[in-house]
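Severity: low
Component: inverse-folding endpoint
Summary: output formatting inconsistent between runs
Steps to reproduce: submit the following structure tokens with default settings.
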């Protein structure tokens, strides 16, 4: 039977099959060839040709469809000499980490591949299930639509793109201790819905779109032991999540246990 194989668009057809294509990976896991000839056979045929079910491709980008005719063995990588077309897999970049400030308006400029103006974004709790979990509490608008229904593109093919989502005020901060700056598993989980079905059901949010950190303005305060103390001045080191801002100190006579709570 005829076979097809997906490779990255920049690769030749005799290259190894692209990772992230479930049907190709299933063949390897079941003991199939680990060479670059791994390829599923058609699941059905009609008057218009063969139907190949490749599964839900996980990695965004464009793929070359390489074809092998049934007159060949399809065991040699060079048997896949025919280019049958291109598969364009659109979606959000799951490796991105976005940052908003707690108590401020939160706007996410979400990056991806071939995004569309009718796509939608949902924020859920860290480690959640995009297709099952409800929107997380603590945002003014969740899920959110693309701002102005306008997608921005960054190349001549309109492939690399960004959608802006205004999710309103971010009220609840995230725990960031032990999280690297580029760790997309820390923080709220972002879930993406391609705008082809209305995005009315939770199950339509199938794509992992990265993480959102909602940072506190001040992460820690400690005395600066290198500063020369006096009767009217002390040195303080402030660990902040982002530059800028003003800290106001309030003094009061009496023991510290009697200071109470100060809004400042």
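Observed output (run 2 of 3):
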């Amino acid at each position: 039977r005829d076979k097809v194989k997906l490779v990255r668009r920049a690769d030749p057809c005799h290259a190894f099959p692209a990772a992230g294509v479930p049907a190709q990976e299933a063949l390897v896991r079941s003991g199939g060839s680990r060479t670059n000839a791994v390829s599923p056979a058609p699941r059905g045929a009609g008057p218009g040709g063969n139907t190949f079910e490749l599964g839900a491709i996980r990695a965004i980008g464009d793929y070359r469809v390489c074809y092998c005719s049934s007159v060949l063995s399809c065991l040699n990588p060079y048997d896949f000499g025919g280019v049958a077309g291109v598969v364009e897999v659109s979606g959000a970049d799951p490796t991105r980490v976005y940052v908003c400030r707690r108590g401020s308006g939160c706007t996410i400029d979400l990056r991806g591949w071939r995004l569309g103006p009718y796509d939608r974004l949902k924020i859920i709790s860290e480690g959640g299930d995009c297709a099952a979990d409800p929107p997380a509490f603590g945002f003014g608008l969740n899920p959110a639509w693309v701002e102005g229904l306008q997608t921005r593109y960054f190349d001549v093919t309109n492939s690399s793109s960004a959608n802006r989502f205004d999710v309103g005020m971010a009220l609840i901060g995230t725990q960031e201790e032990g999280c690297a700056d580029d760790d997309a598993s820390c923080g709220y989980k972002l879930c993406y819905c391609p705008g082809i079905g209305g995005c009315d059901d939770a199950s339509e949010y199938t794509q992992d779109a990265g993480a959102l950190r909602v940072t506190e303005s001040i992460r820690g305060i400690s005395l600066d032991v290198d500063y020369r103390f006096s009767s009217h001045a002390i040195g303080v080191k402030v660990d902040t999540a982002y530059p800028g801002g003003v800290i106001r100190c309030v003094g009061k006579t009496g023991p510290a246990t009697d200071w109470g709570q100060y809004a400042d």
